[in-house]
């Protein structure tokens, strides 16, 4: 027997979808717009925070890596962050996660090579870093294989009327 208060399409007295609409919003569109605005504000504050941190780091560590190189890497990181946000607007199916992980890996590699100075460090440290990346790729790959294996079961459960 189903609980009448928790159905998939229960509407409140004003005709709103009560299961997915927070109490302080009038419409789903208002809730979506507020969430989108909140995400953009969050991204802006992240850019400002990490931009300031990268600039301070560049000032204090300018003797190891030339400032134009650090600024170019910083600009690349900002560009790749924009690409990450842009990739969320394009539905590529099963490739969405792989592309997001690839961009994140590229950003992490830029930070490690230039801000952690692995490019100019002893080759053994780069080997240790690459070993860590291989182990991370192995872990993520096995996790994704497990997810792909059980995805049809989860989708079947979500579509079942007994849920």
Structural summary, described in words:
The protein has 163 residues and is mostly helical. It has one domain. Helix content is 69%, strand content 0%. It has 4 helices and no strands. It has helices at residues 28-60, 67-87, 95-115, 123-159. It is flat, with a radius of gyration of 23 Å. It starts with 27 loop residues before the first helix and ends with a helix. 2% of the residues are buried. Residues 1-9 have low confidence and may be disordered.
What keyword list fits this structure?
single chain; 163 residues; disordered N terminus
Described by the principal axes of the CA atoms, the overall outline is: flat
The figure for the number of domains is: 1
Tally of helical segments: 4
Instruction: Give the C-alpha Rg.
Output: 23 Å
Which range does the strand content fall in?
under 5%
Estimated helix fraction = 55-70%
Arithmetic mean of pLDDT: 80
| SSE string, helices as H and strands as E | HHHH
> What's the end-to-end separation, in Å?
11 Å
Structural class category: mainly alpha
Number of strands: 0
Largest sheet: none
- Enumerate the spans where pLDDT stays under 50 for 5 or more consecutive residues: 1-9
Secondary structure elements and pairings:
Blueprint: H1 28-60, H2 67-87, H3 95-115, H4 123-159
